[in-house]
Amino acid sequence: MMDRQLGTYDSEATRSDSVVVAVDDAAIPNGRLFTHDRSIPSSEDKGLDRWGDLKLAYKTLGVVFGGLVTSPLYVYPSMPLKSPTEEDYLGIYSIMFWTLTLIGVVKYACIALKADDQGEGGTFALYSLLCRNFDIGILPSKHVISKSSVSHANMYGGFEKKNRLGNFFEKSLIARRLLLFIAMLGMCMLIGDGILTPAISVLSAMDGIRAPFPSVSKALVQALSAIVLIVLFLLQKYGTSRVSFLFSPIMGAWTFTTPIVGIYSIINYYPSIFKAISPHYIVHFFWRNGKEGWLLLGGTVLCITGSEALFADLGHFNRSSIQIAFLFTIYPSLVLTYAGQTAYLIKNPYDHDDGFYKFIPRAVYWPIFVIATLAAIVASQSLISATFSVIKQSVMLDYFPRVKVVHTSSSKEGEVYSPEINYILMILCVAVILIFGDGKDIGNAFGVVVSMVMLITTVLLTLVMIMIWRSPPMLVALYFFVFFVMEGVYVSAVCTKIPEGGWIPFAISFILAFIMFGWFYGRQRKIEYELTHKIGVDRLRILLSDPTVQRVPGLCFFYTNIQDGLTPILGHYIKNMKSLHKVTVFTTLEYLLVPKVAPHERIVVNKLGLKGVYGCVLRYGYADSLNLEGDDFVSQVTDSLRAHIENSSGLVPSVPLEVEEEISDMEEAKVAGVVHIRGKTRFFIGKNCSWFDRFMLAFYEVLHNNCRTALPAMGVPIPQRIEVGMLYEA
């Protein structure tokens, strides 16, 4: 596992025991850490769990499926159709039907959701799952592996002998870096999705004003869309639960009204539309249209947009609720809605530029317009929530600069909100609408994001199937061939749209990837320096033996990034301050590549062989919240130390008076005063540094100086904080 420096977390919205770490099981409702724990329910709870899943499934409508179920607003308008025929529309519908069925039902609902990392989903969850089961991290400090349940490599059935692919990744640094790059690219593309989904959804819905009022200009539609989005982003601070409670009825109305309109269109315009389900219509479509048909895939791929949120938002809900909502409401709704749209367009082939609103009967036009506008707002929510989730995961794994993350629910550990990310997304969404107001340009960019995220998920899922699930080779080959070829064709089609707006997500992803790599590179170099210049216990004993060094009263928590030794800042501190507190606890904040760490495994303490000197490891996963108050933290660590001292005295012959004296010294030090010391390090870039190091480390320093610090997340009072500055030679 990798040692991780603390990401900054807050919990202004909640102070519930169910999210406070290092508490007894008795303090947790139902004896569980979180109220929707994924553990197997008892027979008495099955009925309640089913009812809970149904309620969660209803809530998913307002968070998870917004982008997917509102895709009929912009799919047909995004297609560059010239002179479409009946056979063309039947072929297009057949492509959309099988895309929804294979990618939506088979890949995401039936396979991807089972590849969760203890309840967390998304590309980074897949990456961390692989890292946790195999030694494929690329930091030199990755070899800290827990023997407890937090690092059980056999969570999917167990295996002792690693397969050839796992051994290859462990031995090849290039392969490990490529895997990290793929995971980073997937996360960056998903964030790009979080920018483009609100823009295209709201803009497409608001464009419905222009049908009854042709005098309304595009500029006015863009301005109204921007205002709607600003209000939406301002609501994010209230949390996913409150937002979903407000939005789920809206999305429920959309999900059930659009297929009704679709059935009406099927009956009135083309009752035999479902014959297009036959795949031979796809073959005929490409046979007739050739390259033009291939280019149209850039529009048809949008029918599955939002499916990535189905997996990425898993931490906000659970597998059963998402599967129930998708298979029994979302999927049938989309199949019928697209069938109705296609039936209308077969009889009105040149109305595809406004393919949604034109097929709405006049009698229900305005009610559907209102529902569509509200549903587009809900669609924006799904990817905004997913973006918050992946940002939190990457911060916890130290691949992204520390930002503030607020846990907005006391019962769902996956519900998070980041103010900085929220306002950055808001600015970018509004900019996309105002600068690239043409729906076709945004649609082209959207197609690039959707297809790239799907392809990356397929690659990572294939690795999980081979390396962790140990699936039969034939099944893995079938899965990879079908989805990689299908999504690869989609990617090849959308890449032709790069000059026509498709460059937008690549620009966003490049900037994000550059930030992530710069942060990661700087963190790697710092940890390498600390491991090279670490201080051992023997060296510490020599430093303390100096008669000029005094042991001053008080309890000191000295934070370090490494466990195999002590931070070089300690030597810098002792040499210059000529002192060390009588009781000093060297504290490492260790972030394991798991979503959650059991409460009894969070605080691990031990003696370091010197009087009054102890080690403490605080373990957290990327789905755990870290909202300890300063006093609570101190009390829990000292209680753990007292228990450790008492237990060790029973195992090793010891004088009871020495144990009592040790405990008494700790209590006296706590009363005398508590101080928290952490390093404030910077790189000294000398003349021998390469131009690459000069540039990347300077960029890292900019990021480091502008991101949040680690200590405030512990609730440490400002008067108790001390920062020790030190230069690390690059």
Automatic annotation (TrEMBL):
Q: Which GO terms describe its cellular component?
A: plasma membrane
Q: What is its main location?
A: membrane
Q: Where are the transmembrane segments?
A: 56-77, 89-110, 178-199, 219-236, 243-267, 293-312, 324-346, 366-391, 421-439, 445-469, 476-496, 502-521
Q: Does the keyword Transmembrane helix apply?
A: yes
Q: Please give the InterPro entries that the UniProt record associates with this protein.
A: K+_transporter, K_trans_C, K_trans_N
Tell me where in or outside the cell this protein is found: Cell membrane; Membrane
Q: Name one Pfam family in it.
A: K_trans_C
GO molecular function term, any single one: potassium ion transmembrane transporter activity
Show where the K+ potassium transporter C-terminal domain sits.
553-728
What are the entry keywords?
A: Ion transport, Membrane, Potassium, Potassium transport, Transmembrane, Transmembrane helix, Transport
Q: Is-annotated flag, keyword Transport?
A: yes
Domain K+ potassium transporter integral membrane: start-end pairs:
57-538
Function statement: Potassium transporter.
**Database matches in PANTHER family:** OSMOTIC STRESS POTASSIUM TRANSPORTER, POTASSIUM TRANSPORTER 17-RELATED
What family does the Swiss-Prot or TrEMBL record give for this protein?
Belongs to the HAK/KUP transporter (TC 2.A.72.3) family.
What NCBIfam families does the database record attribute to this sequence?
A: kup
The name this protein goes by in its record: Potassium transporter
Organism per entry: Actinidia chinensis var. chinensis (Chinese soft-hair kiwi)
Q: What taxonomic lineage is listed for the species of origin?
A: Eukaryota, Viridiplantae, Streptophyta, Embryophyta, Tracheophyta
